[in-house]
Design goal:
Layout (H helix, E strand, L loop, with lengths): L15 H9 L6 H11 L9 E5 L5 H8 L3 E6 L2 H10 L8 E5 L10 E6 L8 H14 E12 L16 H7 L3 E14 L5 E13 L1
Length: 211
């Protein structure tokens, strides 16, 4: 993920994200991913494995679902220990179709792909980097490919955090001007974070096909 820390990267302590990632690793894949996969599976079967990039792969729940369904996957996260954990947890039968990369989003060079999956990860990219990252995402996805993921709305409790990015519906429409919207859901509610802390959520769930 495109997370920020005031400490130099070489001096960072063990990230609390590691606890979160491992706590959610066994959860079901994201709803946006399963919807995107169902749409792909309703199309003509590809003769070669499709290729997905899982941005902010975390504990690997979406990465492993993609692998289970026969996809080739590039799993990306900024936490080296989490990438090591994903590599060690993946079944040996998936190793030939799994690549991993430790990177912050703004440093990525994205190859062409059929799907970019970004489950609750893009909002952690700083606002001054987001437009550049999004353009790379658009260019990376081939025509007929899809974006599946989540963005945070402006009424999310974390919206006062200057290091995170939040969007209005109109702004999301502009981001997806080169896509056909296949699934769009706005969810605003009181809930909890993975660590159990109370939080007001404002989240947009998106599946969109590049036209």
């Amino acid at each position: 993920m495109c997370k920020r820390n005031i400490m130099p990267r070489t001096q960072r302590r063990r990230s609390p994200w590691l606890i979160h990632y491992k706590a959610t690793a066994g959860h079901s894949p994201s709803d946006t991913l399963t919807k995107a996969l169902a749409l792909f599976e309703g199309e003509t079967e590809s003769k070669k494995p499709r290729f997905a990039i899982d941005l902010g792969c975390g504990g690997g729940k979406d990465t492993f679902e993609l692998l289970r369904r026969g996809w080739k996957v590039l799993a990306v996260d900024s936490e080296p220990e989490i990438i090591q954990w994903v590599n060690s947890t993946a079944s040996p039968k998936y190793h030939a179709r799994l690549r991993t990369r430790v990177s912050f989003f703004e440093q990525l060079r994205l190859p062409k792909c059929d799907l970019i999956n970004a489950s609750y990860s893009l909002p952690f990219c700083p606002p001054n980097q987001f437009d550049s990252l999004w353009r790379k995402i658009v260019v990376s996805i081939t025509t007929g490919g899809r974006f599946a993921g989540h963005l945070f709305g402006i009424r999310d409790e974390w919206s006062k955090d200057a290091d995170k990015t939040f969007h209005t519906i109109q702004q999301i429409g502009n981001l997806l001007s080169e896509f056909e919207m296949e699934h769009f859901h706005e969810d605003e509610r009181e809930g909890t974070t993975a660590s159990g802390r109370r939080k007001h959520w404002h989240v947009f769930s998106i599946v969109a096909r590049k036209t």
